[in-house]
Each structure stands twice: as structure tokens, then as C-alpha cells.
């Protein structure tokens, strides 16, 4: 079976269960990274990622291939994260975890550093950065996922980089945000 | 333009360029090559990029609920003949019931057989018919909640009609209004049976 997400999505939209499962497995890491980075909370991310794929069970039938399926799914994920965060805030349970709760990486110190740094980025900058840098979306696709103009994404990616560079430099360089 | 402004513009260009999202800008490139601060910034940017490579990609299991849900939907056989029959009966009962209710509401003279079919009953008839249509559309969602009401309506209809028959006060056209209720009830029992056979549960 083809592992091209677009092919899998079209087959899943026609009711092919194997294609649906393979599509989910293909997108699982992206959705998790996005939810984790956007929410800053392991439990919220878990809930939102599960909800994303649950919604996809019905939503995939509406997929017409007008854009990449990854964008289609990440838009669902963005809404799921927003709703999960609202629920958490209402219940007063929102306690973002530290990055140390994440699984170990090949170079743990660098990875954990970056997670900690990402965690302190404002949500709007973090979202743009994660979409384009961690998930590798084009600015155009990231703009569609985030629901903002492409220029906003471009600017936010730059500002996120400024902050990360400044933070990694240990404050040697000021994070001169350019708006 | 100030030096700071030039640095900022060049770095903004570099950020987009690293993502393949910028057109060639010789002036920005020249500035980056000649500015020590921007050169250091570019190296730091590479460090950020390097750290991204080792960002953990492992995901916990987030798929089980969705895959189970897909299986449930797949085993919800749209092709199950009993389920299809149940939905068809419910849809028919709903449509006919609605039509009779509308006729009774707008042409009361046709059905003005005493209190047997008063306007309040017309409203009830319409509501019940609407319920049958909803159950035909979303069996799992609406079927169970409608069953008690439809069950009581069906039993009472039979009892009252039997009473009318014994007293010979029968208006055949009015009695026809009971048919959708009984058909709808039959459709709901068919749904229940189909759900039980498929091992599915109606949503509470």
C-alpha cells in the first residue's frame, strides 16, 4: 500500500480502514509534537492528540484533497488543543509539565534545553516555530493551520528564532524583537 | 537605515531564507557576511537548528480511541438489512405522521372526529413523527431516547382504538393516524434488535 499521506487520505475518505490506520500512524508524531508544543502540558497534549484522531474518524470523509492532509489534520489538532486548554483552565488543573517529562532523545541535554526554551516562548511564536521548524510546513501551510496571514507566520518565526538565539546565548545577546 | 535596522532586516531575511521562503537578496547577504554581530547570530541560528534535529519525536499512543471508533463505525453495518429496514420504517412513519399532522392542522374539518384528534394531539403527532425521522437519521443517538415515549403512545393507541372498535365509534380516516405511531414503534424495536445482534449499545 502507498504510504503517501495524500493517497491514504483519499482512500480513507472512501472508507478504507487500513488506509485510515496507516494515515494516522504517519501523522501521529506530527500531531503529538504540535499538541505538546502548543499546549505546553503533557496531559493536555495527550487528550488533544487523541481527540484530534477521534474527530478525524468523521472528518476524513469531508477531505477533498484541496490542500495537504497534514494541514487538514493539524487544523483539527489546533482546535482540539484550544478546547482541551479551555477545559483545563476552567477546571483549574492546568499545570504545564517540565520538558524533563518527555522521552529521552539522542542528545538529551540539547533536546531538553530546546524543549525548555520552546516552553517559554509565547504561544503565538511557539506555534509558528513548531509548525515550520519541527513539522517542516511551508509558511503557506503553517498560515493555513494557524489561521493567520503568511506574513504573520514569517514574522513570528523570525521573532521566535531571535528569542531562542538570545536564550541559547545565555542572554549575551538581547532578544531585540522586531515587530 | 540605522545599523541596528540593517541587522534586523538582514536577520529577518536570513530567517526566511533558511526556510526557503525568501527571494535572493544580495544586500542582506552582503551585510550578513560583513557584520560580526550578524555572523555570530547566524551561527547561533545554526545551533538552534541543530538542536531541532534531536528534538524527541516519539509519541505516546494517541491512536487507540480513534482506531477503535473507526472499527465501531465499520462494524455498524450500513448494509445490515434489519437496520436498513428499521430506518426505512422509521422514515416512512415519520413522513406519513408529519403529513397527517399537517393535514389535521390545516384542514381540521377532514379529521374533526370529536376529541379523537384534537389540535393538542396534532402537536404530539408531529413531535413523535419528528422523533421517528431523527431516529431514522441517527439511530444510535435518538433511537433509545424515543422508545419509552413511542412505546406508551403505541400501547395507548392500541387500547383506545380497541375501545373505539367495541363501541363502533370508528372513523377510519382518524384511525389511520395511528398507523405511523405503530409503524414507528415497530421501527424502533427493529433498531433495538439490530443493535443487540451487532453487540452495539445505544447512546444514553
Give the class of chain B from helix and strand content and strand pairing. Answer: mainly alpha
In percent terms, what proportion of residues of chain A is strand? under 5%
Order of helices and strands of chain B: HHHHHHHHH
If you average the pLDDT of chain B, what whole number results?
79
Mean pLDDT reading of chain A? 82
Number of strands of chain B: 0
Report the end-to-end length of chain A measured between terminal Cα atoms: 47 Å
* Run of helices and strands of chain A: HHHHHHHH
Rg calculated over all Cα atoms of chain B? 35 Å
Biggest β-sheet of chain A: count, sense, barrel? none
**Treating each run of at least 4 consecutive H or I residues as one helix, how many helices of chain A?**
8
Note the beta-strand portion of chain B.
under 5%
Biggest sheet statistics of chain B: none
Number of helices of chain B: 9
Head-to-tail CA distance between termini of chain B: 68 Å
Class based on secondary structure composition and strand pairing of chain A: mainly alpha
Multimerization state: heterodimer
Which stretches of chain B of 5+ consecutive residues score pLDDT under 50? none
Low-confidence stretches of chain A: 97-108, 171-179
Q: State Rg of chain A.
A: 17 Å
**Which of globular, elongated, flat, extended, rod-shaped describes the shape of chain B?**
elongated
Amino acid at each position: 500500500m502507498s504510504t503517501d499521506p495524500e493517497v491514504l487520505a483519499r482512500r480513507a475518505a472512501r472508507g478504507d480502514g487500513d488506509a485510515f490506520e496507516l494515515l494516522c500512524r504517519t501523522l501521529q508524531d506530527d500531531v503529538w509534537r504540535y499538541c505538546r508544543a502548543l499546549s505546553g502540558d503533557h496531559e493536555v497534549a495527550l487528550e488533544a492528540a487523541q481527540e484530534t484522531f477521534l474527530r478525524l474518524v468523521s472528518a476524513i470523509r469531508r477531505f477533498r484533497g484541496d490542500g495537504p492532509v497534514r494541514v487538514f489534520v493539524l487544523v483539527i489538532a489546533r482546535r482540539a488543543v484550544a478546547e482541551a486548554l479551555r477545559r483545563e483552565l476552567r477546571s483549574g488543573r492546568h499545570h504545564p509539565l517540565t520538558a524533563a517529562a518527555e522521552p529521552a532523545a539522542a542528545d538529551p541535554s540539547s533536546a531538553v534545553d530546546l524543549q525548555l526554551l520552546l516552553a517559554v516562548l509565547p504561544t503565538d511564536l511557539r506555534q509558528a516555530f513548531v509548525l515550520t521548524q519541527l513539522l517542516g510546513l511551508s509558511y503557506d501551510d503553517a498560515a493555513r493551520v494557524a489561521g493567520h496571514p503568511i506574513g504573520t507566520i514569517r514574522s513570528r518565526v523570525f521573532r521566535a528564532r531571535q528569542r531562542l538565539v538570545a536564550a541559547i546565548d545565555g542572554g549575551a545577546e538581547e532578544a531585540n524583537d522586531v515587530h | 537605515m540605522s545599523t541596528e535596522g540593517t541587522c534586523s532586516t538582514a536577520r529577518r531575511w536570513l530567517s526566511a531564507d533558511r526556510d526557503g521562503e525568501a527571494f535572493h537578496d544580495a544586500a542582506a547577504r552582503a551585510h550578513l557576511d560583513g557584520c560580526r554581530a550578524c555572523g555570530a547570530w547566524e551561527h547561533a541560528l545554526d545551533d538552534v537548528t541543530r538542536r531541532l534535529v534531536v528534538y524527541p519525536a516519539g509519541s505516546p499512543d494517541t491512536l487507540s480511541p480513534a482506531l477503535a471508533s473507526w472499527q465501531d463505525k465499520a462494524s455498524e453495518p450500513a448494509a445490515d438489512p434489519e437496520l436498513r429496514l428499521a430506518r426505512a420504517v422509521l422514515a416512512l412513519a415519520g413522513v406519513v405522521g408529519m403529513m397527517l399532522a399537517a393535514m389535521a392542522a390545516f384542514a381540521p374539518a377532514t379529521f374533526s372526529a370529536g376529541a379523537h384528534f384534537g389540535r393538542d394531539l396534532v402537536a404530539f403527532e408531529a413531535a413523535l413523527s419528528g422523533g421517528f425521522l431523527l431516529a431514522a437519521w441517527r439511530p444510535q443517538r435518538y433511537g433509545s431516547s424515543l422508545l419509552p415515549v413511542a412505546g406508551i403512545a403505541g400501547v395507548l393507541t392500541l387500547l383506545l382504538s380497541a375501545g373505539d372498535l367495541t363501541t363502533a365509534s370508528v372513523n377510519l380516516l382518524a384511525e389511520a393516524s395511528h398507523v405511523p405511531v405503530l409503524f414507528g414503534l415497530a421501527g424502533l424495536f427493529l433498531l433495538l434488535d439490530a443493535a443487540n445482534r451487532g453487540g452495539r449499545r445505544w447512546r444514553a
